[in-house]
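REQUEST FORM: STRUCTURE PREDICTION
Request ID: SP-0412
Submitted by: Lab K.M.
Chain count: 1
Length (residues): 268
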Amino acid sequence: MDNMRLVVVGAAGRMGQMLVKAIDATEGVVLAAALERPGSLAIGQDAGSIGGLGPLGVAISDDPLAALLKADGVIDFSAPAATLEIAALAAQARIVHVIGTTGLSEADLAKIEAAARHAVIVRSGNMSLGVNLLAAMVEKVSKSLGVEWDIEILEMHHRMKVDAPSGTALLLGESAARGRDIALDEHSVRAREGHTGARRAGDIGFATLRGGTVVGDHSVIFAGTGERIELTHKAEDRGIFARGAVQAALWGRGRKPGLYSMADVLGF
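STATUS: Completed
RESULT:
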């Protein structure tokens, strides 16, 4: 089988550069095109040179339609509005769309589900093996413990992150809620301030920290009477997300249209 031709959205950003490097280092894939937003100073520059790899012969463009027409898949860690545009185009082109974008609203997710009727979409709040293993463990522990055990999710990221809670924190929250067979949106507490009263049994709390250059720290705390269980993952290198995304694209090639997760890719 020929190399899978991949497009990177946001190729000049930190995550985009990691994706370009991961594609270059992975057998079976090749960088077909690189995209940036209109007006970006990176337009016209070589995607490899920006990432420190040296010239790859792929100039960064702001034309997603032309890029996707010559590709087998697209990897997208951008912003919600851009992701929805790419999802619509990828569905028309019937190519694999790997989504690592966070901060998506319920309305955004509904549009992505609609696009998945026509193309393979792999969407996850985190593409790393470790975090998805953690999510599986959280679901199992949540199912094993009673509602008298309180669940709190603590996350910390770099100062430049714009959405909160993180996509990974929400992924872990969904795992905890699934373990208890409840809806996260009905039992989620995102902020506490002032005189809040006692904690409601069954709630899943979120706490957000921002600062420095932290790639991503996540802890799920199960607090019982007189004892506590803490499950933690610390990301030290963004490359883990890029490698996971490329693996997801390869996994999705040739599959039936549908909305998949990294749990599907990793076989959890």
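NOTES: Residues 10 and 36 are 5 Å apart (CA to CA).
Reviewed by: T.R.
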